Amino acid sequence: MALVEESDLGTPARRSEQNVTLTVDGRPVSVPAGTSILRAAAGIGTKIPKLCATDMLEAFGSCRMCLVEIDDRAGTPASCTTPVAEGMVVRTQTDRLARLRRGIMELYISDHPLDCLTCGANGDCELQDVAGEVGLREVRYGYAGENHLADAKDDSNPYFTYDPAKCIVCSRCVRACDEVQGTLALTIAGRGFGSRVAASAGETFLDSECVSCGACVQACPTATLIEKSVIEVGQPEHSVVTTCAYCGVGCSFKAEMRGDTVVRMVPFKDGKANHGHSCVKGRFAWGYTTHRERILKPMIRERIEDPWREVSWDEAIARVASEFKRLQTVYGRQAIGGITSSRCTNEETFLLQKLVRAGFGNNNIDTCARVCHSPTGYGLRTTFGTSAGTQDFDSVDQSDVIVVMGANPTDGHPVFASRMKRRLRAGAKLVVIDPRRIDLVHTPHIDAAWHLPLKPGTNVAMLTALAHVIVTEGLVNEEFVRERCDLAAFEEWAAFVREPRNSPEAMAPVTGVQAESIRGAARLYATGGNAAFYYGLGITEHSQGSTAVIAIANLAMATGNIGRAGVGVNPLRGQNNVQGSCDMGSFPHELSGYRHISDSATRVMFEADWGTPLDNEPGLRIPNMLDAAVGGRFKGLYIQGEDIAQSDPDTTHVIAGLKAMECVVVQDLFLCETAHYAHVFLPGSTFLEKDGTFTNAERRIQRVRKVMEPRNGLADWEVTLAIAKAMGYPMHYAHPSQIMDEIARLTPTFAGVSFDRLDELGSIQWPCNEKAPEGTPVMHMSGFVRGLGNFVITEYVPTDERTGPRFPLLLTTGRILSQYNVGAQTRRTQNIVWHQEDRLEIHPHDADQRGIRTGDWVKLHSRSGATSLRALVTDRVAPGVVYTTFHHPDTQANVVTTDYSDWATNCPEYKVTAVQVSPSNGPTDWQRHYQAESAQNQRIAQPLAAAE
Ligand code: SF4
Ligand code: SF4
Ligand code: SF4
Ligand code: FES
Hints:
Helix 9 (346-360) crosses helix 26 (736-746) and helix 10 packs parallel to helix 19. The protein has 948 residues and is of the alpha/beta class. The model is unreliable at 941-948 (pLDDT under 50). A hairpin with a 2-residue loop joins strand 10 and strand 11 (261-267). One iron/sulfur cluster is lined by residues 167-173, 197, 219-220, 222, 224-225.
């Protein structure tokens, strides 16, 4: 296997309907107007030496290495900054050019350490390559003059170093940070010979505004900015293209390997979701895959109080099967179930729901999407007819107005946020609707046109007030509504939103946002050109989560902002495969492709394929399974890659449910919180150890490719296969591609998908079938999936979770860039330097009233429970609102969240909890006990891992 090479054409592509023809070294070439000579030449295989140019960045023209001669033009212009012209005649290789290039290179090398053989970049250094290309043999100036060779290194970032001695001041890093990442953390400080790259105001990289995305490292043509892993392990020898296993953006990476060791993850330029960019998690936070706490051997125990006993795979599988069979014999067929994971592949997820439906003989299958985006499924299906976001990410490049509601893209979906920021810097307008002043509201060169800091729990009131403005001020796109939507439903909806009780003025006391701001935002959305709506869990995780999704869809239809590029309704999916786990039939009532289990035609097709009758009644959702367990009716659960004891609401109830079961099987990488209540632990494999596919937030199906053998001996899909066989329902697949073939056979929206086709096209956005053989980037172009768009009335019903004298503040939760969900993976990487604990954000006014300062321990209590954490006093949150993350199990923010949930889908209401905050002396008794228990469990884990 070799390294996957990617070409660098020197400058970005230009789009133009007009083509220009020129000759380069006597060869004709035709390119779109605006293309650089450098790129035009590269297109016909003519390589012009370059240092400061790369096709990821706009040309800068500083290194002068790419000089060319042009007929009828004086001098030797830089080919990277000179656009092509009709009839232009260009020479790239002449004696004069060679002399000039060698001279420039000589100057660079005279101020560069001569340590190529021991340099980490040796073999992957553009300076070295170009020095060879221009034929530099000697440096006439010697190395004794003034130089930077003694400049101090900055090793502060855990993942990369900055060695100014090697810097050629090409500014690629600065431009990468500006243009690609949009953080603007770097600058060239000083002048002339004293010019050097500086992070923020001359701070270390770690202390600066840098978010460790690594774009500058990737852009650097020398070893000035280089991954520490490359220095430690050496240059990679081969690479495999795969997909990030963190968030729903779905970035493509080249996993660059030396033997079996990952040297680095390099964002893949051909990746359609990320176009060569990444965030700190995907690029750097893969160390958990070899963390010493990973469990690599199956374990069982009789009772959850007993110590774990390491066993063979055969014994563990036999135990699972015999226990599950016993439980069904004693308590009935419905007494067991399974939970699929949005971290696992489509193939693994499909297999697990098949095991439950065909092997267990019931539909007690659910997924962690239950607790995040199940309302998206319900809301978008009800209005548009299908349960998915409408656009591809590229669509944002054509948006004029971007509304972000209940999402924090710079932390949650960072690579897409960078893309969005680029569009905003280019002039698109931004509306942020969020209780918190998220980074996007004011970030370099971006100021939101409107920030509506609504009270948590009032999304539907806000959305309906926006609709009121659109309907009453004559901003409805009547033509779109007439042609594409159900008119009767529209009229009914319009009459409802028109009512004075839904006006911004009437809703201002409810939402806490001034009416004029609501009116301004509504007018901008309706009249500002292409308007796109992006939302996240701040919409779905509410008692009216589904209603809010419907309300967003209503707005898009009323204004005609749906069915073309630049517009749409776009859920920002949390986990890497949330979309896929829903697509694959993980919900108890739906088979793959969102077809109801009661639909006999669909069921018959599955029964024929799977060779067994299926239950036609929907099974239990996760909360119902836990309730039934507490009630004594539900006894066994197979949980694949999901930590419900930490991630699900009302932890006390979750634990009670788990404790009430007789056989809990947990399949995971680490002894997670849920594993404390398990009887069988099956070690899971990481994304680096398996083949399959993930589907990102754009419905984009992408390959996950194995770069190393599973350290535990089996990929997750093989474990499910073994359990199925032991349960008496053998399934026969030799490779995950065969599982995808079955998915395609049984799921019309996946009909054209196969591993071969994915290898050929790179990725495919479903629906992919005869009508759309290469997939569907933008949905509902010529009509809604359900036919006519359906407007639905969205009556605001306040949540039952109310503030009062005992609990006067509202808690809302979210996540930060460096950590991921319950933190099981990111906490086991050096990302921990950026977030060592969860903190409670509290407004200065509320903090003052309670005598709380930043850094103080505070007790956070609600009707459900209490926890302690340290405070961060900030006006990012409004008075009356507090906010925290949920990445650390010893904080357990979900101890305080309630069991209220979305009326349609049971998605928990994480985002609204009435709480009180008071000074405290440190962790609660419960937390101390919990920490001791966790430490005990980790002690169990370590010798096992060490024994591997
Ligand atoms: S790592 Fe990313 S954010 Fe940090 S300086 Fe480099 S490009 Fe900028
Ligand atoms: S650090 Fe690298 S990319 Fe940045 S100016 Fe120096 S050589 Fe160029
Ligand atoms: S944005 Fe998401 S998918 Fe991309 S690298 Fe970061 S975590 Fe991975
Ligand atoms: S590559 Fe053109 S000036 Fe540097």
